[in-house]
Amino acid sequence: MTTADTVKPARAGKPAPVDPITVNVVQGAFENIAEEMGHKLMRMSHSSIIRESEDFGAAIVDSACRQLAETPQSTPLQSGPIPGYVRGIRRLFDERGEAFAPGDVIIHNSAYHGASHGPDVAFCVPVFHGGELVGFSVTTAHHLDIGALSPGSCGIVDAVDAYAEGIQFKALKVYDRGTLNRALWQVIKDNIRASDLVTGDMEAQIAACRIGADRFVLLIDRYGLTTIQAACEAFLDQSERMMRAAIERLPDGVYRACGYIDGYLDSDDPSRRDLRIEITATVDGSEITVDFAGTAPQVDDRPINMPFEGTTDVAIWLTLKSILLDSAVHGQIPQNSGLTRPIHIVAPEGTLVNPRFPAPTIARFAAGNQAADTLMKALSEVIPQQISAGVGTLQDIAFSGVRDGVHWVHMEICEGAYGGRYGKDGMDAVDTLYANTRNNPIEDVEAHLPLRVHRYELREGACPAGRWRGGLGTVREVEFLEDGSLSIEGDGHKYPPWGFDGGADGRTSGLRYYSIVTDESRDLPSKIPNMRAKAGDRITVIGPCGGGYGDPFERDPEKVLADVLDGYISAGEARRDYGVVVTAAMDVDTAATEKLRAGGARGRAKDPPKT
Known about the structure:
The protein is globular and about 80 Å long. The protein has helices at residues 3-6, 20-44, 48-51, 76-79, 82-96, 182-190, 195-223, 225-248, 308-324, 327-330, 365-379, 442-448, 557-565, 571-578, 590-598; strands spanning 56-62, 67-70, 105-108, 120-129, 132-142, 172-176, 179-180, 253-263, 273-284, 287-291, 343-346, 395-403, 406-414, 451-458, 474-480, 484-489, 510-515, 520-523, 527-533, 538-542. Helices cover 30% and strands 22% of the residues. It folds into two domains: 3-239, no CATH class; 389-611, no CATH class. It has 15 helices and 20 strands. The protein has a seven-stranded antiparallel β-sheet, with helices on both faces. The chain has a five-stranded antiparallel β-sheet with strand order 14-15-20-17-18, covered by helices on one side. Strands 8-9-10-11 form a four-stranded mixed β-sheet. Helix 2 runs antiparallel to helix 7, helix 7 crosses helix 8 and helix 9 runs parallel beside helix 11. Strand 1 and strand 2 form a beta hairpin. The protein is of the alpha+beta class.
């Protein structure tokens, strides 16, 4: 049976236009629907990764797989891929001859059919009105275990292929015309550690999807399908015009940059380490093409590759939106598929940014962050006052154990830091540009898990110099109170975030592990497959610092003094890196500072000591 047997085809062509007020009202209504979905999902979820870190997405998509609105609590890597999830679902349904029907709920996480990666599972409810398929209500969320080769859903850094990364849900009906597929649900529960936690989150997703679908139908009942469709066309076109106008303000030309990720620095195989990401951005009128030619080949047996649809494309879209349509300048920008129309992405197949199945992809985050950061670097040549210096990537840790025969799992997102920006210092201790999750409160961790957080603080003696300094990373030290295990997905141990226009490069990240058995500490590489831990063992995560922006000797001396008073830098570093003389009384010696700066006695701001 084909889709056409049970679902009326979407109306062809664009409907007649409606007045601007109605367009704005309908657009606002869709945004409110998505926001309500997000709030309900967050409040109904069991796990801290959704409830506290907000690693989830919710969006309304029309029947042509165009995103109409997304929840503002979402991370870009959750809501951004949702149109791709729906395209993948439709493609799989067409291949299998399956049809959507009222009451269906579909589960999907295939990284080669639009999903960001396996742990980001989507639930999709097709929305019908008068027997016609009018759209989809979709939620995505990161789940703490997905049945991979080891516990947790991050740190699966030794998966040899897509099958080792966990269960693959390829557009399967959890509910078929309103009836629960009990066999499928039991398979999920039987193959996932901490299954009550994970399936509880999944049930919250389903409920949020149904809320979105109901609100969608009520909106159509109020205004009529023709008016809703016309309004959608209008606000999608308006978003496209905004992006085109922003691109047109750039000079036509070709702009290039390259960046590197560590990969697996402890590997003997050179194809697994020092992996290059190369970008050529071509601006032509109101359109921009981002080409990844020259990027490293895919790593066949390690999961550092990025799904093209779901990660690579989202990294590019998000970066361009943040640079060209900065909300501080343009106000709130509606997030919908109209924004992506003028953006074209070329990613050679078989590379890190467009791998071939079954190359593993679960640990794709570092590569995606570098793709976003490298595009920022490429455009720094033409819009220097709209970009930031290099951004430090985060590190993810999966903690796990078994208590009374029941698995517990926890994912800790350890923040990175932003580079300095024109007129502003880099932000300290934040998630990266295209993820944007929140941190986990220590109280929540210690209240629910056999873990104790001994340190959670900004790094000392590691402030990248610049007219606007780089952001500071964090130090987080966690102790196991019971035997358990951990695995780690990180990067940035070798390649620091880049400094811009005379600013210092940022600082690399690090990991240090203390074993209570040997009473010794040792440094770890950035990617650690599952390893056993004893009660009393500790892991210290050292976050990276973003790059500095601009000549440090041009920094306002009063800001340098404030950094000294805040403990970000020492008086000696103020003198060496900024040419600012701070007295014992904690004042700026203006005369000595002017003399020092005039003499050009600058320290090695571009080459800070490693910390």
